[in-house]
Amino acid sequence: MPKRSLHMQSAKNEAKDEARNRAMNKAGDGGQAAIEFAGLIALLLFVALAAIQLGLAAYAVQQAGTASRAAARAASQYDYDYQAVGKASMSDWLADGADIDSAWCFADEVEVTARVDVPSILPDVFDFDDAERSTTMPCD
After folding, report:
1. What average pLDDT does range 85-103 have in this prediction?
2. What is the dihedral angle through the alpha carbons of 108, 130, 92, 45, rounded to the nearest 10 degrees?
3. SS3 of 56, please?
């Protein structure tokens, strides 16, 4: 065999070996990529749940403000059912856990405080205190 054909055959064998090594390395990287993907998905899922939880907390605070204003308006007009008015102004699924307190018209004004339970997606991870808002209105 001439020297040139040996060299070409050797180059072909090296190319085959290199392709085989690349294929084996890629197959070994598949497990690492799966682990990295699982870790990234877990992190993204946690971030999404945290965003939803913060949205729920903000919504509960907004509902507490709405309930305290409505109840204060009713209490300032001497409506003895001001608590029902406050709860009626809220979303039904938050009104069940709401607590509305008031001090009747002293010094020509009434102050009503509404406390709303903040729902939790993951109870041991996202624990918030109750959302609380107070409203003061003049008595009629």
Report:
1. 90
2. 150
3. helix
